Each structure stands twice: as structure tokens, then as C-alpha cells.
Amino acid sequence: MDKIKLNTLHGEVAERIRDIINQGVLAPGTRVPEKQLCEQFGVSRTPLREALKVLAFEGFVELLPNRGARVAKLTKATLRNTFEVMQNLEALAGELAGARVTEEELTNIEALHYQMLSHYKSGNMQEYLLANQQIHEAMVVASQNDVLIDVYKNLNHRVRRVRFTAELSNDYWSRAVGDHEAMIEALRARDGQALGAILRRHLRDKVEISALEDMAE
């Protein structure tokens, strides 16, 4: 991993730490190795600790008085509560995107969709989940509502480590792909109401929630 330039804001340090938490390099409940990360990123303790404050606000880490920080555990209750909010955020994003999506954004989302289908057909779940994540995020951006996008990003950061890494059953995987086909059709038709309803149902799926809860505390 490349070292971070000295003039980079602590936000980039926070992003790097988010990534290694989402990738499972730092497991829930483990201490954040400040000295090691400072050496790895090529930064001093000051931007690192500012980054940890940001991550604590986002729910990624817990600050320990005079003892640094540790990676926060994602509880079943937190996961379920977060998804209840995200269902409605993505549904609203879909409604807005139906009216506001640009041709360029639509083309990009379609390209991601075809990539996702290719990974599904080849059985490459890791790449499928990555494309899936990018599609959901692109649809939110297509809402062109900056407040919604910021709130969504914050919540999505908290659950990304399980939402887009969970093993999916063949039955759920097939239904999820069907949902995505319907999403693309609704977006092409600029039917925001239909897209919003599909997104709400997609995130409310009990199979998905049950699978993700198995990965929480």
C-alpha cells in the first residue's frame, strides 16, 4: 500500500482505515494499531487520531479513554435498524433517480448491470457483489440530492463490510438478480415510483437480513 502524502487531509486516512476494516484486515473488537498504521501510511499520529474521531462518529471504531481505539462490533440490532433506514433512503433515491438520472449515469449503471450479470453467470460471487455495490451507490448518486447521498454514504459505510461480503444462497442470488433486472427496466422507463418500490422490497428481503445477521454479533 502506498504511503499517504504529508499534505493529505485526515479524511484520506479515514478512508484507508475504513477499507481495511471492510476488508476484514482489522476484525471487530480488535485494537487499532496506531503506530503500525502511521508507519504504513507515512503520517504522524495527529491526522491518524483525527481520522479515528471521524470513524468513531460513523460507528466504525470506539474510542477508548487514554487507550486508543478498537474496531466496533456490528450487532444484529444495529444491522437491522440500519437496514430499516436504508430501505427508505434507497427507495427515495430510486424515486428521485427516475426523474433525474442523466443519460451518462444511465449508461454507466447499465454497464455495471451487465458486468454483474456476467459475474453471476460465471459464479464469481466476489466480483458480483462488488458490481452490485457499485450499482446501488450509482443509483443513489443519480438522485442528485446531496443530503440524501451524504446520509446514505454514512450508513452504507457502517454495514458495507457485511452487506457486500455475505455468502448468498443460490435461491436468494437468483431472486436478487431478478430484482436488479426490474430495477434497470424501471430506470430506463424513468419510472421512479416503480424503482423505489423495487429497491424497498429488495432491501427488506428477510433472507438477506437473516444471512447478514449471522455475520453480526
From TrEMBL:
The record's section on InterPro entries has: GntR_C (IPR011711), TF_FadR/GntR_C (IPR008920), Tscrpt_reg_HTH_GntR (IPR000524), WH-like_DNA-bd_sf (IPR036388), WH_DNA-bd_sf (IPR036390)
Q: What protein am I looking at?
A: GntR family transcriptional regulator
Q: Pinpoint the HTH gntR-type domain residues.
A: 7-74
Chain coiled-coil ranges: none
* Alphabetical list of PANTHER family matching this protein: TRANSCRIPTIONAL REGULATOR, GNTR FAMILY, TRANSCRIPTIONAL REGULATORY PROTEIN
- The domain of life for this entry's organism is Bacteria
Segments traversing the membrane: none
The UniProt record lists the keyword DNA-binding? yes
Record keyword Hydrolase present: no
User: By its UniProt entry, which Pfam families does this protein fall under?
Assistant: FCD (PF07729), GntR (PF00392)
- CDD domains from the UniProt entry: WHTH_GntR
Q: Which GO terms describe its molecular function?
A: DNA binding; DNA-binding transcription factor activity
Species this protein is from = Halomonas urumqiensis
UniProt cross-references to Gene3D superfamilies, sorted A to Z: GntR ligand-binding domain-like (1.20.120.530), Winged helix-like DNA-binding domain superfamily/Winged helix DNA-binding domain (1.10.10.10)
Listed A to Z, the keywords are:
DNA-binding, Transcription, Transcription regulation
